């Protein structure tokens, strides 16, 4: 029997989000219904609402979530009802060319639930990142459920489902930050701060946080930044070079998703250094760089999709580190809110007032 639950939808481009009744089908083969306990508000949800990701409105928003598996469909063996899980947007297929080459974190054929959740009038919903977890329950592919230690609080566990994993992974997986490296992180929202925390975990010697908002810089320091730069007041590239012996950082992580900050990242790295783009640009953005500089500066220009994470490997490990007191996930939660507060949370995110607002159900 399909169930009716409350969920937050983005009805159309730039229209305010609202709570609606959502119809969640019973799980079919390979699917699971998860009772959501907490779901963080990520900037990507705002991109969806603004039409920056696709035009497939209405969206069922929310994708940084943890909860308990309620029911599973035929053939599901990895998770069972009652399991505490973090939802991921990388259910690896095991068969695509990336998986077959032993690089499942690039899986090119990740899957979601086959059945559609709908509004009560039958309108099909597009769940954000194939998840849709600003809802009391959601339908996902069973592979999107990653079991972790159930003693962790759902509010912090859910954060690993997107932004915090993307940031930590941008540093430790994509950027390959290691002991003694200098790192600069441009944009210190939830993703950038997670990149700072990840660089700290990996043993970086210097971690330079760059933002245009002093409140964000203060928070970044508490996350492990050793130096901060307000790029509204100071030239970011010059400041990063000055803090790295005049050379630039070994790894620069761009966590804003804009051409001008990418350009800063490009010129703020040392020769043969690495740029990691984890911020998500919008379709109209363009980048122009002298090709000779791309060649002459050497190194690696990388993008980081979801922190190149492998949920089954990385989620349980990071939750363990958190439970041991080695990774402060609580620090990312600015406030807990209700389903009805998502629009207000977008406002606060837009004004830079929060790192993460987390919907608790
Ligand atoms: N690659 C991925 O897999 C992935 C996953 C999650 C989120 N993201 C993306 O990461 C980006 C950051 O997400 P978030 O949730 O941290 O957003 P956020 O809005 O919380 O943080 C953005 C930060 O950038 C700062 N900023 C804005 N303009 C700046 C500028 N010109 N120079 C320096 N700092 C500037 C803001 O003050 C803010 O602190 C978004 O583009 C989001 O879509 C990517
Ligand atoms: Zn695959
Ligand atoms: Zn996200």
Q: Could you list some keywords that capture this structure?
A:
361 residues; alpha/beta; Quinone Oxidoreductase, Chain A, domain 1; Rossmann fold; six-stranded parallel beta sheet; 11 helices; binds nicotinamide-adenine-dinucleotide
Description:
The model has no long low-confidence stretch (mean pLDDT 97). The longest helix is centred in the middle third of the chain and has 13 residues, at 190-202. This protein folds into two domains: 3-161 and 328-360, Alpha-Beta Complex (Quinone Oxidoreductase, Chain A, domain 1), CATH 3.90.180.10; 167-304, 3-Layer(aba) Sandwich (Rossmann fold), CATH 3.40.50.720. The chain is built from eleven helices and 18 strands. Helix 4 packs parallel to helix 5 (190-202). Strand 12 (206-211), helix 6 (214-222) and strand 13 (227-230) form a beta-alpha-beta unit. The chain is 26% helix and 27% strand. Strands 3, 5, 6, 9, 10, 17 and 18 form a seven-stranded mixed β-sheet that branches. A six-stranded parallel β-sheet has the order 13-12-11-14-15-16, with helices on both faces. It has a five-stranded mixed β-sheet with strand order 7-2-1-4-8, with no helix packed on it. The two termini are 22 Å apart. The chain is α/β, with parallel strands linked by helices and 361 residues long. The chain has helices at 43-49, 97-100, 154-157, 163-174, 190-202, 214-222, 236-242, 259-267, 291-296, 311-323, 342-350; strands spanning 3-10, 18-24, 31-40, 59-60, 64-72, 84-87, 118-119, 126-127, 137-141, 145-147, 182-186, 206-211, 227-230, 249-254, 269-277, 300-303, 333-337, 356-360. One zinc ion (ZN) binds at residues 42, 44, 63-64, 162-163.
């Amino acid at each position: 029997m399909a169930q009716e639950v409350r969920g937050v939808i983005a009805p159309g481009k730039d229209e305010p989000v609202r709570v609606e009744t959502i119809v969640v089908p019973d799980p079919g083969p390979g699917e699971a219904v998860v009772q959501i306990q907490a779901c963080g508000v990520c900037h990507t949800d705002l991109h969806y609402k603004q039409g920056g990701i696709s035009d497939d409105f209405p969206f069922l928003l929310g994708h940084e979530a943890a909860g308990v598996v309620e029911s599973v469909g035929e053939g599901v063996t990895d998770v069972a009802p009652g399991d505490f899980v973090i939802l991921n947007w990388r259910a690896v297929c095991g068969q695509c060319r990336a998986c077959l080459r032993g690089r499942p974190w690039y899986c090119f054929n990740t899957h979601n639930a086959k059945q559609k959740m709908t509004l009560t009038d039958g309108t099909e919903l597009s769940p954000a990142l194939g998840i849709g977890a600003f809802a009391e329950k959601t339908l996902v592919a069973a592979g999107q459920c990653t079991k972790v230690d159930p003693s962790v609080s759902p509010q912090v566990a859910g954060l690993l489902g997107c932004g915090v994993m993307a940031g930590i992974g941008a540093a430790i997986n994509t950027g390959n930050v290691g002991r003694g490296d200098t790192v600069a992180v441009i944009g210190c929202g939830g993703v950038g701060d997670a990149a700072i925390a990840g660089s700290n975990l990996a043993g970086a010697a210097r971690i330079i946080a760059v933002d245009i908002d002093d409140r964000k810089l203060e928070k970044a320091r508490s996350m492990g930044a050793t130096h901060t730069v307000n790029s509204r007041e100071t030239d970011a590239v010059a400041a990063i070079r000055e803090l790295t012996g005049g050379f630039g950082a070994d790894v620069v992580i761009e966590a804003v998703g804009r051409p001008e900050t990418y350009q800063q990242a490009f010129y703020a790295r040392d020769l043969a250094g690495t740029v990691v783009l984890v911020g998500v640009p919008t379709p109209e953005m363009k980048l122009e760089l002298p090709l000779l500089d791309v060649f002459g500066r050497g190194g690696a220009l990388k993008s980081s999709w979801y922190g190149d994470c492998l949920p089954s490997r990385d989620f349980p490990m990071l939750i363990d580190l958190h439970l041991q007191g080695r990774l402060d996930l609580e620090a990312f939660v600015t406030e807990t809110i209700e389903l009805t507060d998502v629009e207000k949370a977008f406002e606060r995110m837009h004004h830079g007032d929060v790192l993460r607002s987390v919907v608790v159900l």
